[in-house]
Amino acid sequence: MIKNWLKIAFINYRKNWLSTIINILGLSVGLCVFLLIFIHWQDEKSYEQWIPNKENIYLVETKNASFGFMLTSSYPQLSVSTEKFSEIESFAVNNTWNDYKIRLMFGNNSVFTSNARVSDNFFEFFPFEKIAGDFKNAVNGDGKIAISEETAKTLFGDDYKNCIGKELKLDDSQNKSYFVTAVYKLPVTNTAFRPGFVMKHPNFLKENDQDKQWMNYSYVGYYKIKPGTDIHNLERKLSDLLWENEKIAMKQWGETIDEKNKSQVFLTPMGKMKLDAKSEGVEKGDKKSIMILLSLSVLILLLSGINLINLKTAQASQRAKEVGVRKVIGSTKLKLVLQFLLETFMICFVAYIVAFAMVELLLPSYNKFLGKDIKLNNASLFIYTGLLLVIFSLISGLIPALYLSNFKPINTLKGNFARSKNGVWLRNSILTLQLIISSFFIICSLIIHSQVKYMMNKDLGFKGDQVVRIQFKKTDWQNDYNSKKYLRLKNEVSKITGVEDITSSVFKIGDGLMNASSVKNAADTTKNINSVGVGGVDYNFFKFYKMKFVAGRDLDLKHASDTISGTIANETFVKKMGWNPQQALGKEVLPGWEQKNRKYKILGVVKDFYITGVDKPVDPILMFNYDRNWVKNNMGNLQIKISGNDINGTLERIKEFWMTKAEPGYPYDFEFIDKQFAKTYQKFQKQQTLFTTLNIVVLVIALLGLFALSSLLIEQKLKDVAIKKTLGADEKTIVWDLTKRFLLICVIAVFISIPFGYYAMNEWLKDFAYRIDMPVWPYVLSLFLLLILTFVVVSFKAYRATKINLVKYLKYE
User: Where does the record place the MacB-like periplasmic core domain (predicted)?
Assistant: First the structure.
């Protein structure tokens, strides 16, 4: 019986070779897109799965009115909560900054690597595989250091396992010695924790006043929580404790207490923090984008299934007599359903194999696009997709199988089934759904393109072309902080041929503000802004970036008061204070980063400029000369304007100076300011690229399906075409008669898709502080584009139908 079913299947595949190829191609592309996004999702979910007891370890995050969601917590928040609530067994601190690297030295060998500043019990929470030494007391005191296997190999060579007790030097201003206590191996699986060495956080080496403050958010904390704990209830208790202590601190500092915006604590499971962290997280992934893309890939898969269903039902007239005869000779409905399901499964299985081949070919480019190294070596992926294949085959095959098996022998043997109203209604409904999905993708793709274009064309408020930024690798905390180092390097680099000007700032354009604090109106201390950016800049900063003043003047070294209390405000700060730019001039404010109520006088108001990205609102900021108060220790970079005549030559000369005189032994790297700022667009540019790609895939699948479907349906009407031509109908009339039904379905589909597209895009645009108004033209263009494509695809086959041999189709009449 199976052998007979296979023979029938291959006969029908050969007979309908075009629709078979289109089915396989459409399903392969749909499955390929789904698999690529699915493996990306699985890769993001796999982070920190190496940690034992990860389901009971939680990342501690905080939210308050001034800073929003924060990755960091205060020390009292972590320690007092552990003592107060029995649900919390212990806490650990793990300040791992993968981008901040330090030089570690042993003799003539050195390594430039990332590090973690942690609490004593770090290895209890993060049990890396031990290579040598003892984890128990590895980082419980000053002068102790644990290093990774890679770091140990670089410093000690093949004898790295015997490095316990060896003395290392840390290349910082203190030039301290550290003794190796342990060597650990970093996980081979996905993890955000890859420190080259681990040491006790310097704040924990001695008691300090800052760590007694509830609002000193300095530590990335983790709780180990007892199994079975009600996490939501614990979050509520932690939030209440934090808020009560923050109110005490705010009263002492004279800040306004807003009971409507209470501070909150959130707990995110270690194994889920990559995607589910509330704040920016530890190397947080973009869960929302992945879920959107995954949903869209399911729609594409659905579209491929619709093609299969539609083409199978369109072929019904060709199989009707076969079904009728088989029923007459005793075949049951169940056998017919199983036969048709087998045929569908065979197509899906071939498409499944082709899809994996396509994934293997596309994976290198996909990895480069995502900045990942995903591999097809996860057995669960094949299990999940195998189940998907079976379920998809069952769903997409069951509808045409039931449809075909329900044919009545008396009707099918008369040859009238092709004109059945039920058959026409089913095909039209499925075709409408297919075009709704296509229209939805077109609308969304056009709106996303418009929003990204709007962001990229927005006035940034500064000119950053031909400006490179070089970050200091080695800090100089003891030699009057970094300000003297900055001045020395500025003086030396300015002598290099091709360097036009140099400036610096404590914040980084493209990376956002480094520090923020509250600021009060000195004349009325009830008026304040809780989160104002601390903007230490060089004196030429505004001229360097060609920023425009809307009122007042720049800082002037000739006026001593400018260097002591003068400040420049941006437009956002002035608006939040309730002033216009002219009113702000001469006003005095009390910044929270100054002590003894020192007043700052506003000298000028500069036009708003973007620091973080144009998708986020401009932060209020006060800017002042860098060589004032504690800000001088944050001058950690040079921003260099390069002449356009010899950019590459100038960069080479700067590199030679930097590697030989400025910071020898350290890796040299730089970034163009405009390119660095462009990285703030990358997330949305990638969304635009992915959505455009998916849109093309959707249109290709839909149009291929439409072409195959129209071919089958028009072939069923060739006798009608022959009769019309015999009666004198011209080609235009015949083509219009054959295509108008498809065009009507297209119009209906677009109108149905409009509310879905509007809702989806309105939700997507909510993430942007600066967004376009919802445009009308994408909806109109979607209609015209689909009408044109539908007409072109269907009319091509319709026109060919007008060239038929009339004798062939009329000789039996």
Answer: 20-239, 435-627
State the Cα–Cα distance between residues 200 and 143, nearest whole angstrom.
9
CA distance 693 to 699: 10
Bridge partners, residue 185, by sequence = 129
Among the listed residues 529, 486, 489, 531, the one whose alpha carbon sits nearest the alpha carbon of residue 512: 531
Using CA atoms in the order 333, 334, 338, 341, what is the torsion angle rounded to 10 degrees?
60
Mean pLDDT calculated for residue range 666-672 = 83
Contact 52, 224 (CB under 8 A): no
- Tokens (6 digits) for 782: 């979607």
- List the chain domain ranges: 1-47+286-419, 55-276, 434-458+681-813, 467-677
Q: How far, in Å, are 318, 481, 734 from residue 100 at the CA level? A: 69, 18, 72
The number of angstroms, rounded, from the C-alpha of 15 to the middle of its chain's C-alpha atoms is 46
**Reported pTM:** 0.78
CA-to-CA distance for 307 and 710, rounded, in angstroms?
A: 12
Whole-angstrom distance, CA of residue 319 vs CA of residue 317: 5
Residue 43 per-residue DSSP state = H
Higher-confidence residue: 380 or 778?
Answer: 778
Alpha-helix residue ranges (DSSP H) falling in 269-375: 273-276, 287-314, 316-328, 333-370
pLDDT score recorded for residue 602 = 93
For residue 524, the SS3 value is: strand
Q: Which residues pair with 601 in a beta bridge?
A: 566, 588
Q: Are 509 and 611 in contact (CB under 8 A)?
A: yes
Residue 659: DSSP 8-state:
I
Tally of CB atoms within 10 A around 239: 17
27-45 per-position pLDDT tens digit: 888 888 888 888 888 889 8
126-181 pLDDT, tens digit each = 999 999 999 988 999 888 999 999 999 999 998 889 999 999 988 765 667 899 99
221-225 and 57-64 as β-strands: parallel, antiparallel, unpaired? antiparallel
* Pairing mode, strands 144-148 and 177-185: parallel
Distance from C-alpha of 672 to C-alpha of 508, rounded to nearest angstrom: 12
Q: Interhelix angle for 379-405 vs 316-328, to 10°?
A: 70
pLDDT band, very low/low/confident/very high, at 813 (cuts 50, 70, 90) = very low
Three-state DSSP at 559 gives coil
C-alpha dist (Å) from residue 571 to 518, 540, 574, 576, 585? 17, 19, 5, 9, 12
> Tokens 């008369």 appear where?
414
pLDDT tens-digit profile of 587-598? 999 888 886 678
Q: What pLDDT band is residue 612 in, cutting at 50, 70 and 90?
A: confident
Number of helices (H) and strands (E) in the chain: give both, helices first.
Answer: 24, 22
* Residue 640 CB burial class (10 angstroms; 0-12, 13-18, ≥19): buried
CB 193 within 8 A of CB 148: no
Q: How far apart are CA 104 and CA 223, in angstroms?
A: 31
Report pLDDT digits (tens) over 66-91: 777 888 899 999 999 999 999 999 99
Rg (CA), the chain: 34
